[in-house]
Amino acid sequence: MRFTKLFAPTTKDAPKDAILPSHIYLVRGGFVSQIGSGIYNFLPLGKIVLDKIRTVVKEELDNAGAQEVMLGFVTPSTLWEESGRYAKFGKELLRFKDRKNNEFVLGPTHEEAMVDLVRNRVKSYKQLPLNLYQINTKFRDEARPRFGLLRGREFLMKDGYSFHESIEDMQREYALMEKTYSQILQRLGLDFRVVEADSGAIGGSGSKEFMVLADNGEDDIVFCKNPSCGYGANIEAAKSKDNFVFDSEVEMTPGEFHTPNISSIDDLSEFFHIPKSYLIKAVAKKAVYEDRDEVILYFIRGDDELQETKAQNIAKALELEDASEEDLKAAGLVAGFMGPIDLDVKFFVDERLKDRDLMICGANKEDYHFVGYSFKDKDFDYADLISVKKGDECIKCGGELDITKGIEVGHIFQLGTNYSEALNATFLDRDGKTKPFVMGTYGIGVSRLVAVVVEQHHDDKGAIWTKSTAPFTYDIIISNIKDDEQKRFGEELYQQLLNGGESVLLDDRAERFGFKMGDFELIGFPYAIIVGKGLKEGVVELVDRKTLTKQSVPKDEIFSKIKEL
RNA sequence: CGGAGUGUAGCGCAGCCUGGUUAGCGCACCUGGUUUGGGACCAGGGGGUCGAAGGUUCGAAUCCUUUCACUCCGACCA
Fold first, then answer.
1. E strand spans, A6-47
2. Are A52 and A468 in contact (CB under 8 A)?
3. Which of A129, A275, A354, A398 has the most CB within a 10 Å radius?
4. pLDDT digits 0-9 by tens, A443-485
5. How many other C-beta atoms can be found within 10 angstroms of the C-beta atom of residue A452?
6. Residue with nearest Cα to nucleotide B75 C1'
């Protein structure tokens, strides 16, 4: 490709709302442009990168035995009603009607559609397992799109679904997909971690996320510093060891205690001269369900923090909101003095409190706490409710846990039979019995990966594409296009590289040297070959975009030099 | 969804408060010339339904009403 023919409108200035490097450089470099809130056009450079990533994804998946299909982007809403998600999914699901007044949705994910494709076509265990995927546009009407391609409303995603006769076979495929996804991300040149994850609204028994490490990530991921351990988890699912050690000097006589105006954990700790780990923190939330709201209490240790996703999951709520003073009053609760004593509202207790005694909690009475509370023999709903903190001990090896930022690029789920049952998708097993398919589902954000590569590989001048993602590998810069010798050699080299099967761009524009170098650095091709002043002495220069180092190479050797890279 | 803003040339903005020549600036673009190793310079030039609709007025980019879009902070986010 010649730069004079390439539609790549680079700019000096970034859009004012672009904060993240990936957003700034993708727009400035002429890769993408915004056409609406959270909706982006891909220009030639962006499309090349997108296709390269898509190709890597496809090659690895096909190699693992999956088959590519393409489902309709527009899906009849009846399918979504069948699975029950039409009501559950919320406003993210874009719904609309056609001229005949039939309802449709723009697919944000395609469990229903894929199950529908398979049911009544696959009838026997002999046709299993089956792993079908598509790389197709998705639409989610995000409340607040931002960060360019990282959180758009319309995006390209690979979503795959596997069908099995048993849980064991599904888990085999799940492990295969973990391996396949890891290979994909490795080929793209990304530094990533596979972490345990919350399964979220999609349901299922287990899931893992593929997190690319980046300072601007939206997710907090917990990982063990011990290199031989390898534990990693999304903060929403992470667990740590209980570090509580009982202090034998602590004594309490059970009973109510007057604590006027003392309601915060800090104040109580000071008032009773006792560590926060002996206090019971009550967190009130308003759980929103399809048909009602309900105040729910969560009891956790005074030095812990409630993890909202865990709290929401255990309550099986659509979402959790902060409970207001009025909500609490209406539920008969006294803000600041709530405890697990004689409660009428639904509540959950963190599993670390099970069998603890000698604790202090609210007495459900204004200005009173209860001292010497015991959980022994109390048959409450215990669950993991708390957030892991930096420095906690690893649940697996006891090592030190750290927290870092990551961007989710892939998510694999052990789905089970949720969807096959809901949609009545069954097969006959070896004993001739009707069974629902055991399913797995696997997603990878293809357009998001375009941004993620830049997010992880850039400097203050622009993007730095990895070899497997670069729109072109080599950028031949003819320093002065009016210099016949430079022009002739640049053209020659360009033809030579093309004939050699290399991915190469010839910058033959009548621009000044600095302008062309700037574009090279901004767009981020892995290498530039400068054909300029040095040509008189018989040399050209090879520039490594990553290090920006230049080395002079005799012009007759540049072709073989490139072949070595 | 709550709060706060912004819509004027391809991009970034001024003008609006206090209505009144032909709506301006920088970058980008076109023509000619000089330049050619780090985003050059000189001269000339093209490009605007001032987001949309309605209203007030002799007169509206400017004031009023409605509406649409986009952005920021937060909540949300397989």
1. 32-36, 39-42
2. yes
3. A129
4. 999 999 999 999 999 999 999 999 999 999 999 999 999 999 9
5. 27
6. A321
Complex ipTM, two decimals? 0.92
The span from the CA of A469 to the CA of A503, in Å, is 11
Distance CA A189, CA A213 (A): 12
What is the distance in angstroms measured between the alpha-carbon CA of A475 and the sugar C1' of B41? 28
Return the CATH class of domain A474-564.
alpha beta
Specify whether the backbone of A398 is left (phi greater than 0), alpha (psi in -120 to 50) or beta.
left
Q: In which order are the strands placed within the sheet that holds A319-322? A: A319-322, A280-288, A293-301, A346-350, A382-383
Closest CA to A126 of A397, A373, A429: A429
| Portions of chain A given CATH number 3.40.50.800 | 474-564
- CATH annotation of A46-224+409-455: 3.30.930.10
Q: Which positions 424-483 on chain A have a beta carbon less than 7 angstroms from any atom of strand B?
A: 443, 445, 461, 479-483
Q: What pLDDT was estimated at residue A138?
A: 95
Show the low-confidence residues of chain A (pLDDT under 70).
199-205
Angle at alpha carbon of residue A448, lines to A223 and A236, rounded to 5°: 35
A11 CB-to-strand B distance under 7 Å: yes
pLDDT at A202: 55
Strand B lies under 7 A from the Cβ of residue A206: no
- Residue A151 exposure: Cα atoms within 13 Å on the Cβ side: 15
Helix (H, G, I), strand (E, B) or coil at A304: coil
Which H/E stretch holds residue A267? Answer: helix A265-272
Cα A153 from Cα A144, distance rounded (Å)? 9
Task: Tell the CATH topology of A255-383.
Answer: YbaK protein (3.90.960)
Phi, psi of A359 (to 5 degrees): -125, 165
Q: Which amino acid is at A100?
A: K
Nucleotide nearest A442, from its CA to each C1': B78
Where does chain A hold its CATH 3.90.960.10 domain(s)? 255-383
* Nucleic strand B under 7 Å from the C-beta of A84: no
Q: Which pair of structure tokens corresponds to residue A303?
A: 């030095």
With beta carbons less than 8 A apart as the criterion, state whether A208 and A196 touch.
yes
Q: In chain A, list all ranges with CATH 3.30.930.10.
A: 46-224+409-455
- Which distant-in-sequence residues (6+ apart) come within 8 Å of A372 by Cβ? A252, A253, A254, A255, A357, A358, A359, A360
